[in-house]
Amino acid sequence: QVQLVESGGGLVQAGDSLSLSCAASGNIFNVNLMGWYRQAPGKQREAVALITFRGTTNYPDSMKGRFTISRDSAKNTLYLQMNSLRPADTAVYFCYARDRYSGDEYWGQGTQVTVSS
DSSP class of residue 65? Predict the structure, then answer.
């Protein structure tokens, strides 16, 4: 089992920056992929950024340029730096992890990000 706890969400204005954190605990040694997803009201959950255990990052084309994923392995913490935020970025942001052996997927409880115009 892996536990994920997000923090850092809040209400910001368009153009602002915000940083999210995800503290991971439990059987994290088997995790080979972590990332951030988001879900806006009435929309499907979508990937924002992914990072492998080797540190390789991947961003969907629509997310490139304004979002940066990183991690601190010593602190078992995942980060998402979001710049030039837009009202369309308003969503609940979820932390994600996948076990390399079982394929089990884990999700945090989510943190709300609201961008006002």
Answer: T
Of 82, 64, 78, whose CA–CA distance to 13 is shortest? 82
Task: Count the neighbouring beta carbons within 10 Å of the beta carbon of residue 83.
Answer: 13
What are 112's two structure tokens?
């709300």
Strand spans (E) along 8-83: 10-13, 18-26, 31-39, 46-52, 57-58, 67-72, 77-82
Phi, psi of 67 (to 5 degrees): -115, 140
Q: Which letter, b or e, does each residue of 5-39 get, where b requires 16 or more Cβ atoms within 10 Å of its Cβ? A: ebeebeebeeeeebebbbebeebbeebebbbbbbe
15-65 pLDDT tens trace? 999 999 999 999 999 999 999 999 999 999 999 999 999 999 999 998 889
